[in-house]
Amino acid sequence: MPKIIVEVMPKEVLLDPAGKSVNNALHRSGHNEITAVRIGKRIELHFDRPVTDADLAEAQKIGENFLSNAVIEDVVSVTVQN
Amino acid sequence: MTFKIGVVTFPGTLDDRDAQRAVRLAGGEAVALWHADENLHKVDAVVLPGGFSYGDYLRCGAIAAQAPVMDAIKKAANGGLPVLGICNGFQVLVESHLLPGGLIRNENQHFICRDQTLVVENVNTPWTNQFELNQEIVIPLKNGEGGYIATEETLKRLEGEGLIAFRYKDVNPNGSMHDIAGLRNERGNVVGLMPHPEHAVEAGFGPDMPGTMRSGVDGLKFFTSVLNSLVNA
After folding, report:
1. A72 vs B102: CB contact, 8 Å cut-off?
2. Which residue is closest to B100 within chain A, CA to CA?
3. Which domains are present in chain A?
4. Which pTM value belongs to this model?
5. Is B162 left (phi over 0), alpha (psi -120 to 50) or beta?
6. What is the pLDDT of residues B167-187, one digit of tens each?
7. CATH class belonging to B4-231
């Protein structure tokens, strides 16, 4: 299925409590080589036809204006899988 | 004349009935507004109550900010309609860009529920005109994502222009920058805060006060303030 994949991450300067909890659990189970965990979101936008450049441009806008909040998050990638 | 205060219900809103009751106790008429409403049924002010609209999916308040009723509220707010956002309602205002900044998970990662002392730092709004400047009030606070953040530039502007309406006193419960509990917009008609004034409107059901349990009614003044501002409008 053709899709656009938007990935959103919390800003690096912000505390990511979910990532911190997972990191703590990993350390408890002996994975001390891992220094930090950060958790973001992967959002898939599905299409029933091939994705066009215009779709991609629109997805970029949707990513910045709705799927993320620029105060607390960054859109780190918008990719097409046709 | 009785003024009509609209209280919006989104799927997942919890405190709409409490907000309606607060409006009635203050002497107003509460009008239930639905998230799919495209008009505001001629209300004189709007309350966006607390809860977990749309299950907090995507981000708290983000999906509610796209609801049809919010188009009407954004337009009306830009025209001067008094709008109060409480807790999730504050998050909706931020996501609607009616107030700046963002709200993130509490610093200590806990859901916090406590009777919180606030300082009222701006009384020039329709929602705060019955308070004294720097008055200390006690309002119940209950949230998981109440940490206020904004860019340095925005914080400087908020401080410089006196747009911080409420600040946490004694305890900063959620790691909010500059102890910010609530904001107003430049015009003053839009106010948002994390604590819940609608839970402090009737003795016997409010926050604990020194010497008397559950007697706090400081929240009622938010609602009498807006009715007062409408009388004088």
Report:
1. yes
2. A71
3. 3-81 (3.30.1280.10)
4. 0.94
5. left
6. 999 999 999 999 999 999 999
7. alpha beta
